[in-house]
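ugh ok fine here u go
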Amino acid sequence: MEIPVKKNEEYIVDIIDNGYEGEGIAKINDYIIFIPQAIKGEKCKILILKTTTSHGFGKILEILETASSREKVDCSTYTRCGGCNLRHISYQTTLKMKQDVVQNLVNKTLKQKVTVQNTIGMKNPYNYRNKAQYPLGYTKNGEVVTGIFAARTHEVIPMKECKIQNPISEQIATIIVEFLNQNKISVYNEKTGKGLFRHIVIKVGIKTKEIMCVLVINGENIPKEKELVECIIDGLKKSEFKLKTVVKNINTKNTNVILGNKNITIYGDGYIYDKLGDYTFKISPMSFYQTNPVQTEVLYNKAIEGANLKADDILLDLYCGIGTIGIYASKFVKKVYGIEIVEQAIEDAKENAKINNIENIEFTCGDVEKVLENLLHEKHITPNAVFVDPPRRGLDDTTINNILKLSTEKLVYISCNPATMVRDLSKLEEKYNIKEIEEGNNGIKIANDVISVIAGVAVSEVPGVASMAGGFAGGISEVLSGKKNLSKGIKVEADEKDVKIDVNIIVEYGSRIPDVAYEIQTRVKKSVENMTGLKVAEVNVHVQGVKTEKEIEEKEEVEEEQQ
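structure:
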C-alpha cells in the first residue's frame, strides 16, 4: 500500500471518530491518522508528524470547524501532562463516548440484544481522588520538583493544581519537596539508579480526614527523618485533614514500578481508616481501595439493587479483595462468602468485618478458579446470588463453568474491563438473561489484546525501531476496521497485581540499542498506564535483529503482496 500522506506536509481532514485515549481519528484514502485533541465532527488542518505502513500521526495546526462538545481547557499543563486526556471535551460527551465503547462490544459479541444504559456520571467530577502518586525529579537548575510525568516521557512537569486530585495531597507534596531542597536530599535518577527519594504516595480518608504519607526511597534511611515528619504535621495545622501515619517504602530495584515490597512505619500505626456508606475500612500502604469513593458507593448500591437481594439470600462474593462490597451488602442477606487469592487482602477483609461487627460473612483465601468448587462441596452451600469482580483479565473458564453449574438465580458482574466482561457474558448467556449493562465513570479499561495494540502504537513512535518482530504492521488498521487484531511482536500478561509486557523488535541499523530499549520501556509503560489505569510492572524489550532501511522496505512490500 502506498502511503497517501508525507511527513511534514499539511492536510485538511474530517475527524470521523475518537480513539481510546481521546485522540481524533481521520482517514485519507483509507489511511488512518491519529490526531491528539481533535474531536469527532471537527474539520482540521493538520501537520503529519510521522508515518508507518498502517497509520500516521499528526497535530492540529488549525481547527476549521469546531465540535459543539469542545470546551476550554481548565488546566495550565494539560497539553503536556500525561494524566488526563479528555479535558477538552465536555464531560457529558465523554460519558457518552464510554457508553458507545461498551455498546459496540456488546453488539459485536452477544447473541442477546442488550442496551447499555447511560453512563452514571458525577455531580462534581473534580478533586475526587483519594490517592496521589507523585514522581520526583530535578529542574534544569538542579532544584527538586514534583508533579506529574509529561505524556510518553518520564520528564516531571511541576504542577501546582490538579483538577482531579484532592488539594491536600498537593499541599503535602509541596511541603516534602521544600524540605528536600532545604536539606539537599537527593532524588532518584532512573538512568543512573542513584538518588534517594523516588515517589511520594498520599492516601486520604475522604470522610475520616486521615492522611497516610508513603515515602518511596532507594535505600532504608532518610536524613532528618523526624524533622520531615514534624514539618508535614506543622504544615497541616490549619487543615481539617490530619496526618495519621508516615511509612517508608523501600524500593531499591532498577524498575519503573512505584512501590517496593518492604514498608517501615516511622510515624503513627501504619494505616488509615475511611468510610463507605455506614462501614469503616482499614487501609494500609499496599491495600487496594477504590480511588473514587463517591462513585464506589454508587457502584455498590447499583449492584445491590440489580441483584434484588433478599433477607434469606446466600451471597457468593468472588474476588472479594479487602471485603468492601461483601461487607456493604451483608445487611441485606443471610450469609456472605468471600474468596480472594491475595492473603493480605483476606486478612484485611477479616479485620474489616470485625471493625464493622459483621458476623454473617466468611472469607477464604485461594485462587477462585481452584477454590470455588471445593468450597461449595465442603461447605455444602447453595448461593442464590453471586457478585463477581474479577481482575482485568476476566473470568477463567473453570469459574464460568462452576457458575453455570450453580444455576444461581442472580449474578452481578462488576468489571473495569468491558472487553473481557462482554467476552465472559457471551459464555454466561447460555443460562442467564442479561438484564442490563450500566456504565460508571471511573474509566474504561482495555482488554489484554487491546493493551498489546496500545503498546504497539507507543513502540512505533520510538526512533530507531525498524519494525515489530513477527509482523506488527497493519495491526492498528485491522482493529479499527473490525478485523482480527494480530498484534504480533507484543505479549501481554496480567494478573490481579500488575501487567507484564514483552516487546519484540527489529532495530534500525546505526541506532544505539540501549537507548532505543529504554525509550520503548518508558513510552510503553506511560501509554498503557495512562490509557488503561493498569500498573505496568515490567516492559521487557527483545531485540530480534538489525535491518537497514532498504531491507525493511523490501520486507513490507513482500508482506503486503501476501495479504
